[in-house]
């Protein structure tokens, strides 16, 4: 298993404007110079719990698909989908597909159903577990995802600025407990009516809990790191 270059991006989010958001995601993909780019929760619509559901074959995603094709990148972006669920779309040069549905929606997200359970994807021989926001604080979710034999745990989140410290604590706990890499893409700036300001500070943590890369709270920043298999200490 070779190394994997991963980035966590926090592009500007325009509420309910999928076309604009897909274009900004595409720009982040082109700038990231990474094999895999992780985006925040509901990044394609903004955190508007009444947003129309997005289909993976929506033509507005074409700029992002094209950017992934041009750079040989895989993007993990957030959207509300049929179910309804809060979900992660995996996007590459061939299109988009749903790869994860949030298992632990917050009580304020009562519109959305819980996803069926933990999921993992494979990229270049790396097994990558997935989560969305509140999932990161549920120990059972981390344990069940780790049990899938993952090498890294990837998640997109939206939270208030004060949650910056909590997100870092969760990342360190998961990385050290399960001996895996952890990447959190945390929205920066505004995202929907509930979040006029968000935490940012996206980051990547090594299996020993140390910070491999960290963004500031500024909109548009990207943090990037190279994951090495020899650093894994999976339990």
Distance between the termini: 18 Å
- Given helix and strand content, the structural type is alpha/beta
The amount of helix comes to 10-25%
Major sheet attributes: 6 strands, mixed
Total helical segments: 4
User: Strands of the biggest beta sheet: in what spatial order?
Assistant: 5-4-3-2-1-12
Secondary structure: number of strands: 12
Radius of gyration: 16 Å
Number of domains: 1
Shape from CA axes? globular
Instruction: State mean pLDDT (0 to 100 scale).
Output: 97
* CATH topology label: Nitrilase/N-carbamoyl-D-aminoacid amidohydrolase
Outline:
The chain is of the alpha/beta class and 235 residues long.
Summarize the topology.
Blueprint: E1 4-9, H1 18-32, E2 36-38, H2 62-71, E3 74-81, E4 85-92, E5 95-101, E6 120-123, E7 126-132, H3 139-146, E8 152-157, H4 164-178, E9 181-186, E10 203-205, E11 211-214, E12 222-227
Parallel strand pairs: 1-2, 2-3, 7-8, 8-9
Antiparallel strand pairs: 1-12, 3-4, 4-5, 6-7, 9-10, 10-11
Structural features:
235 residues; six-stranded mixed beta sheet; Nitrilase/N-carbamoyl-D-aminoacid amidohydrolase; 12 strands; 20% helix; alpha/beta; globular; 4 helices
